[in-house]
């Protein structure tokens, strides 16, 4: 199997990526980690053998469009590890909070019988068991868009990651911020400082200061909105989707949202794509849109029709989806039957739609497109 570095170099040779020294340095660091993982097996311990020491992980940080997520995707695809997990950090924290809530709701007998129970930990303390639950699934953890904006997360992370590292987990993370700037100016930030120190101890911190914006470099003349509908708009969307995903493998994706999952028709490398008819069906609610907006920095919406009173429910869901994408500063790329101001020309709800039209215009601007993608808090998503 090709290594992360050889895969990166191949993408440069075929023109999918432009040469960039900072990106290649990141690929080299990930390549070294992949080679170390070949020799690491946390289960390789016995009566006369010590627990093997895990290799140091990697924390890649840098500005929007530096290619951090792409590099991590290449690493994840090529890493010689079976038990591995690649997840958006916001989604990971949502899952962790749900596990903790569920654990607290269990009686003692159920806790004792739980497959994720850590026998050395108190049954009344859910955090070690939450960490053991994650480690039982994967010992290589790849987190995209590592950021901390919630006091609950800040208080939880130190102990959660401390237990994960004790168990032998290896972590790779991407972020727009250096670890020292995580949860900056947050409430009771001094309580989060040990978690920062732990990350810096267990992960090599590396800046990816790319010479160009990898993401914006794929846009021709800032075109992210294609109208009217037709073969030309579809062809533009197809080509832009291929370039935004660096022509990676495209597949459907299911996102865990508690006791059910959200279906994403096409997903690859932090980019989601689906038709208006899918995104704005009755399967989705406000919390689902917030989750999607946090999970994906780039979202494609195909075939937005002209809207009117007869499809007011779909129009309301579309408004909610656009609000979620806007608040998360996600990039929106879409094809539509008309320009934003003409999508909902008259009828019940048309006046309220004017704000959405205004946002659709703003989301095409260079200023908006160059902003950092942001997540939403666990509370906001509920």
TrEMBL record:
Entry keywords, A to Z: ATP-binding, Cell cycle, Cell division, Nucleotide-binding
Family annotation (Gene3D superfamilies): P-loop containing nucleotide triphosphate hydrolases
GO-annotated cellular components: cytoplasm
Pfam families: AFG1_ATPase
GO molecular function: ATP binding; ATP hydrolysis activity
GO biological process, one term: cell division
SUPFAM superfamilies: P-loop containing nucleoside triphosphate hydrolases
Highest taxon above the source species: Bacteria
NCBIfam families in the record: ZapE
Protein name: Cell division protein ZapE
Organism classification: Bacteria, Pseudomonadati, Pseudomonadota, Alphaproteobacteria, Parvularculales
């Amino acid at each position: 199997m090709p290594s992360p570095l050889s895969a990166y170099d191949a993408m440069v040779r075929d023109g999918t990526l432009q040469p960039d020294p900072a990106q290649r340095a990141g690929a080299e660091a990930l390549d070294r980690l992949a080679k170390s993982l070949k020799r690491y097996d946390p289960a390789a311990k016995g009566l006369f053998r010590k627990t093997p020491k895990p290799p140091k992980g990697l924390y890649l940080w840098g500005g929007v469009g530096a290619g951090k997520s792409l590099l991590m995707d290449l690493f994840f695809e090529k890493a010689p590890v079976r038990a591995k997990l690649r997840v958006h950090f916001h989604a990971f924290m949502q899952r962790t909070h749900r596990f903790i809530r569920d654990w607290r709701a269990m009686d003692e007998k159920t806790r004792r019988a739980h497959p994720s129970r850590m026998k050395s930990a108190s049954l009344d303390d859910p955090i070690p068991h939450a960490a053991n639950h994650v480690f039982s699934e994967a010992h290589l953890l790849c987190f995209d868009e590592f950021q901390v904006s919630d006091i609950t997360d800040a208080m939880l992370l130190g102990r959660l990651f401390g237990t994960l590292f004790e168990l032998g987990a290896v972590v790779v993370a991407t972020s727009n911020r250096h670890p020292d700037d995580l949860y900056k100016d947050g409430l009771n930030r001094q309580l989060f400082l040990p978690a920062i120190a732990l990350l810096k101890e267990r992960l090599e911190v590396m800046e990816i200061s790319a010479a160009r914006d990898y993401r914006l470099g794929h846009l021709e003349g800032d075109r992210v909105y294609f109208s009217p509908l037709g073969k030309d708009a579809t062809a533009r969307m197809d080509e832009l989707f291929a370039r935004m995903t660096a022509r990676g493998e495209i597949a459907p994706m299911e996102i865990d949202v508690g006791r059910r999952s959200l279906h994403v028709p096409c997903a690859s490398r932090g980019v989601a794509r689906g038709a208006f008819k899918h995104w704005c069906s009755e399967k989705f609610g406000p919390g689902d849109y917030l989750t999607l907006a946090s999970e994906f920095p780039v979202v494609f919406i195909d075939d937005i029709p002209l809207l009117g009173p007869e499809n007011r429910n779909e129009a309301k869901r579309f408004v909610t989806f656009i609000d979620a994408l806007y608040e998360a500063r996600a990039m929106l790329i879409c094809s539509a039957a008309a320009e934003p101001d003409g999508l909902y020309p008259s009828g019940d709800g048309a006046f309220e739609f004017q704000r959405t039209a205004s946002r659709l215009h703003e989301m095409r601007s260079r200023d908006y497109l160059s902003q950092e993608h942001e997540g939403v808090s666990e509370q906001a998503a509920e």
